[in-house]
Fold Remorin N-terminal domain-containing protein.
Amino acid sequence: MAAEEAKKVEVETTTATKDIAEEKAIVPVPVPDNSKAIVAVVKDAEGTRGSSERDAYLTKIMSEKRTTLINAWEESEKARAENSINTL
């Protein structure tokens, strides 16, 4: 009995996999129609600005960064000088 049931299960699984394979093979792939594609062009506020404004903005950022680093270095030197005075 167990051997007959095992054969039935094997037959059912093989037929089930064949059915699934056939179903997958039958499904057609839709072909996209690119002739009806819609392209939306959106211009944002930054897109309309020129590169000169971008360069000016980057220059401003770089100068602020430079002054921040210089201030941090000055504070570090002051702290180092105070620490060396306190150790003497």
